[in-house]
């Protein structure tokens, strides 16, 4: 019975406590001042940068699908245009890992914009909420591919809209739990396609494609283990609509294909270490089991963040 009592006491110590009383507000304020964060591996922040400040967070990863490695780098490079409006860019580069291909390839870039609608404070504990409006720029090569070359883009401009939410919880042991929700949806535009392409066409094909819309939902949580160390965990679900491909092949025969919808759900446990209030790093693994018309994958990643 004593051991059961100890377990119950330990669990109750981690239950979020209300912070309506003045003493609880003071505890929450003190905890937020000393806790340092990098952010989980997948879920994005709902806060915006102070005006004139810069945030950099390059990512380095290795996507492993079917035993093949696909190393690359991405990241966030953002600027506080005003206290409630942050803009930036998310680049993407891929490194060929095949024996015949070790080239560094450019992928699609994403222009970022986030407007904060509400802001969490210890005194007014409403979640931070931000409206996201991004634009995917088709900088990656998607068609006219060589016989042994892979594409790294979609060829399509894709406006994206979404909402980011973030909330803090003061736990019974005085530590913080930070939770995030991201909901994003993009609208790819029609693009011309010629020759070998990422859409499975062969040399001699001429036509166009309309990629399926993508919806992403991410749930993220971080537990402030110490002032420097943080445990993080994400769950991400992705859904792709039907892609339409129309045109003519090398023989002039009409081609009209519609790919089926697909979806998957993955998890990303990670560990953060923040050596100052302005800098830190995160290491984790994004694991995606085989989904509906999608392959399974494992992607170890590391990112280093810096606030300027």
Number of strands: 18
The rounded Rg comes to: 22 Å
Structural class: mainly beta
* Number of helices in the DSSP assignment: 2
Distance between the termini: 53 Å
CATH topology (level 3) name:
Porin
Biggest sheet features: 12 strands, antiparallel, barrel
Shape type: elongated
- State the CATH class: Mainly Beta
Number of domains: 1
Strand residue content:
over 45%
The CATH superfamily is monomeric porin ompg
Summarize it.
With 308 residues, the protein is mainly β. The chain is built from two helices and 18 strands.
Characterize the structure shown.
- It is a single chain.
- The chain has 308 residues and is mainly beta.
- The protein has a single domain (2-307), classed as monomeric porin ompg (Porin).
- 8% of the residues lie in helices and 52% in strands.
- The chain has 2 helices and 18 strands.
- The strands form 2 sheets. Strands 1-2-3-6-7-8-9-12-13-16-17-18 form a 12-stranded antiparallel beta barrel. Strands 10-11-14-15 form a 4-stranded antiparallel beta sheet, with no helix packed on it.
- The radius of gyration is 22 Å and the shape is elongated.
- Mean pLDDT is 88; it is low at 1-20.
